[in-house]
Specification:
- By secondary structure, the chain is of the alpha+beta class.
- It has two domains: 8-178, no CATH class; 190-224, no CATH class.
- It has helices at residues 8-19, 26-44, 91-110, 124-132, 151-158, and strands at 53-55, 65-68, 79-82, 135-137, 143-146, 177-178, 193-196, 201-204, 221-222.
- The radius of gyration is 22 Å and the shape is globular.
- 25% of the residues are buried.
Length: 224
Amino acid sequence: MTNSSAEWINEKIRDNETTAFDWELNELASELYWWVDFFNMAFFKDQPAPSPVLIFENASVNTLGHYRIGRNDWGVREQININRKYLSLPLWRKLSTLLHEMVHSWEYTYVPHEKRTKGWYHPITFRYKMLEFGIETNSKGQHIGLDPKGRFVHLLSKHGVNFDEFDSSMLFSDGIIKIDPKKGKKKGKSKLKKWSCGCTNVRVAVADFKALCLKCGEGFVLVT
């Protein structure tokens, strides 16, 4: 089942992704599109999130996914990226990311402009919506808590999604499982290199950095 309000091009891209059997991400894309429809029926109901185009591009190691506001360079709207760097994470984490981005789509469809997420800051409107599903988020949009009795965990568990990495010892007094938002995140590869004059260290991205320290008068050399 697909969203009847979806744009024609979105449906065609979805059809291509789910029938491209020689594509290594065909199975994952098909599964995630099924969950898009399921989340709309289970969570959004009278205010369904528009049917998205799912992409799997490499993105910053600091993000598991993102929702693109407006149209991309091809004129396509409702684009959700699931960061290719994190496709090996447990299914529940990929699905929590998908639901997160669908909430952004819901925001930009139904929520007044002044109450929507802008930049890195995730407002109360967004956080309350995620909390309805049993996912606690902070102002940066990071998932920091999971309600084991919430709708997200309940419905995914009913459909065979594994949450075995959690146990009762991880429950806090309020009954919420605290999530470390950094768990599973990769470290970025900085282009900054360390240079030293002997008394001061600096980090720069210039390969042929040439400078004298005004404090000791020595030149900076690359620290290997």
